[in-house]
Specification:
The complex is a heterodimer of chains A (340) and B (147). Chain A has 10 helices and 14 strands. By secondary structure, chain A is α/β, with parallel strands linked by helices. The chains are: A alpha/beta (340), B mainly alpha (147).
């Protein structure tokens, strides 16, 4: 049964494992630094489907199927499926998972959904509500562009602060299987809005949420950034990461050398100029977690990390009505050992 | 120390790299100028074929629109535009791209509610306000007896 520490943090009382995981990507992700670590990748972003939305569903289905395969489980062995994406009504998730005979909980936390899903799956396992629960998230460049911005073939120029929605998905299965890595604590974020209205500067819009969640976590647990190997944010990109550092320094909790961002890990900004300030999307943090961070925790290269996925809770309608962009960040504390 | 909206706005401005205006302006000038030069060349070609001046201009526009829609479909226009910016946006080719690109993108929702309905999603405002401005202009000409 999880217990509450402080205002926003819950600690797992049992050893909740991330028993298996899988990542899926496309051409840009294959060409990035983590390309070789993806479990499945297709350079054609259509993945053999008729539309971008169907392609995104395909990626989620593939990620979950591969994670189940690695764990040696059948879909029916799962007690809960938690999934989210960026499309209206979360159709990438529902259409991907409609064939799985598992109780389904749809999530919307924008790009924070990866940490939201993993955290909730871990809670369900810790409190005994589920023996195994899977968290799946995805994003697709083509599907996101046409929903939030312009058609792909439209000749527009991006600003240097714009980010690139990852065509990627990740699936993780939480259980009491006893193998590392382990989910130790989760911190649920507050909706945070410091008035950023520029939809081409999502990192800046989300950085205050990440700073708020991290500060709450450190206050709740009485720990400091130095107690962790890495503090990995979801998709703040170059601009948001810089702003997060400044906000943390003002709170006397500098992250300095420990700070990483999935949006900067998934792509090589020097070679892949089109990503501008870095990657974004639910699939960005999920695929980096599955392709890089979880394996490093499993083999002991990393011992203890804070994974903070960040989401921009906006829609084109709200933006067109002049609203600013509220951000949210959810944190998961992951370790290579169940104790200590 | 908590940060308020004003303070954060300043921090954001400072942390956000500016658009390289000079470089973008220069590429826009060169590419936009090149497209216009091609148009001039086409007009000269049609004139040399014996077409009247107005007909030659119309054929020039039609050719540029065709080339823009074709290269949009081939995925080349977007690649050029990502560097050229206003250079590919301002000429008539930009307008053609703005109509062709949603037509391609939304074809997956069907020929009527997808392709046809979404075709004007970007160019629509230009048409609405272009036609409105022309109506106001025409009215002014009549009212002031200039026409």
């Amino acid at each position: 049964m999880p217990h509450r520490i402080g205002k926003q943090t819950l600690a797992a009382d049992s050893a909740v494992s991330v028993a298996a995981w899988a990542s899926v990507g496309s051409r840009m992700e294959m060409e990035g630094p983590l390309g070789g670590a993806l479990d499945y990748a297709d350079p054609d972003g259509r993945f053999g489907q008729e539309s971008w939305e169907k392609a995104e569903s395909f990626m989620q289905k593939k990620a979950l199927s591969l994670a189940l395969e690695k764990a040696g489980l059948a879909p029916g062995d799962l007690d809960y499926l938690l999934a989210g994406d960026l499309l209206n009504q979360c159709i990438a998730s529902t259409y991907a998972l409609r064939d799985f005979p598992v109780p389904f909980l749809g999530l919307f936390g924008a790009c924070s959904s990866s940490a939201l899903g993993l955290g909730l799956a871990a809670l369900l396992v810790d409190c005994g509500a589920a023996r195994r629960a899977a968290a799946v998230t995805s994003s697709h460049f083509g599907a996101a562009e046409r929903q939030f911005r312009f058609p792909l073939q439209y000749g527009g120029q991006r600003t240097p602060t714009a980010q690139w929605t990852a065509t990627a998905a990740g699936a993780m299965i939480a259980s009491h299987d006893g193998r590392p890595p382990f989910v130790r604590r989760i911190t649920t974020g507050l909706i945070t809005d410091l008035g950023v209205t520029d939809a081409n500067n999502m990192g800046a819009a989300m950085a205050p949420a990440a700073a708020g969640t991290l500060q709450a976590y450190f206050a709740d647990t009485g720990t400091r950034p130095e107690d962790y190997d890495l503090v990995v944010t979801g998709d703040l990109g170059a601009v948001g990461s810089e702003l997060l550092e400044q906000l943390m320094q003002r709170a006397d909790l500098p992250l300095s050398g420990r700070r990483r961002d999935c949006g900067l890990l998934l792509y090589d900004r020097e070679k892949q100029k089109e990503v501008n300030a870095g990657g974004s999307g639910c699939g960005c943090s999920a695929s980096v977690l599955c392709a890089s961070l979880l394996p490093a925790l499993q083999n002991g290269e990393l011992r203890s990390i804070l994974f903070v996925a960040t989401g921009a809770l906006m829609s084109p309608t709200a933006s067109q009505q002049g609203e600013s962009i509220p951000g949210i960040a959810h944190l998961v504390h992951l370790t290579s050992s169940a104790e200590g | 120390m908590p940060v308020d909206k004003d303070r954060y706005s300043k921090m954001t401005d400072k942390a956000s790299p500016p658009t390289p205006a000079f470089r973008h302006g220069l590429t826009a000038f060169l590419v936009g100028g090149a497209i216009c030069a091609v148009g001039q060349g086409l007009t000269a070609l049609y004139l040399s074929l014996g077409l009247a001046k107005e007909t030659a201009s119309a054929w020039c526009s039609v050719t540029l629109i065709f080339l823009s829609a074709l290269t949009t479909g081939l995925g080349w226009y977007e690649k050029l535009a990502s560097r050229a910016g206003a250079g590919t946006l301002v000429p008539i080719t930009g307008f053609a791209n703005a109509i062709a690109s949603p037509a391609i993108e939304f074809r997956s929702e069907g020929m009527v509610l997808g392709l046809a309905a979404k075709m004007f999603v970007i160019a629509g405002p230009v048409i609405v306000y272009g036609v409105s401005a022309a109506a106001v202009y025409g009215l002014a000409l009549v009212l002031f007896g200039l026409a």
